[in-house]
Amino acid sequence: MGKLRPITVRFAAAEKQRTEQNAAAAGLSISRFLAVTGSAAAQPIGSDERALYTQIIVELRRIGNNINQLAAAKNAARRGSGQAPEQSEIEQAGTEVQQLATAIRAKIKII
Predict the structure, then answer these.
(1) Distance CA 104, CA 64 (A)
(2) 107 closest CA partner among 40, 53, 36
(3) Of 67, 5, 70, nearest to 31 (Cα)?
(4) Largest Cα–Cα distance in the chain?
(5) How does pLDDT run across 41-94, given as a tens digit for each residue?
(6) Using one digit for the tens of pLDDT, what is the confidence trace for 51-66?
(7) pLDDT, tens digit, for every residue of 14-35?
């Protein structure tokens, strides 16, 4: 870590309060919280991470589109102008969402 150097930071009252709350929730002092979050935010995303995030966004859009189509089909069936989706199709969409959420948590290490 090297020699620690002081820094002065100015906050509006509400910003200071949120920062204190966030630091306490993280179990860190305000100084440590600012050092950790400030230095982490300054690190650019690598090409591998960017590709991963792009893939995640594409998959989320695909799954969202499938869910919208299922909802539209179900609504059309209620109005008598279409066929309701099979329960297995709805369950498959739910399974895909859960699998993607699990993969995202593993990649970005969220509990």
Answers:
(1) 16
(2) 53
(3) 5
(4) 73
(5) 656 667 777 787 888 888 888 888 888 888 888 788 877 777 777 778 878 888
(6) 878 888 888 888 888 8
(7) 999 999 998 898 898 999 888 8
Identity of residue 87? Q
Q: Pull the structure tokens for residue 39.
A: 């230095």
Residue 9 in contact with residue 19, Cβ under 8 Å?
no
**Residue 90 to residues 50, 100, 105, Cα–Cα distance (Å):** 30, 16, 23
Q: How far apart are CA 86 and CA 91, in angstroms?
A: 9
CA–CA distance, 32 with 38 (Å, rounded to integer):
10
| pLDDT number for residue 44 | 63
Q: Which of 58, 4, 67 is nearest to 34 (CA)?
A: 4
Cα dihedral 47, 52, 58, 62 in deg (nearest 10): 170
How far apart CA 32 and CA 4 sit, in angstroms, is 11
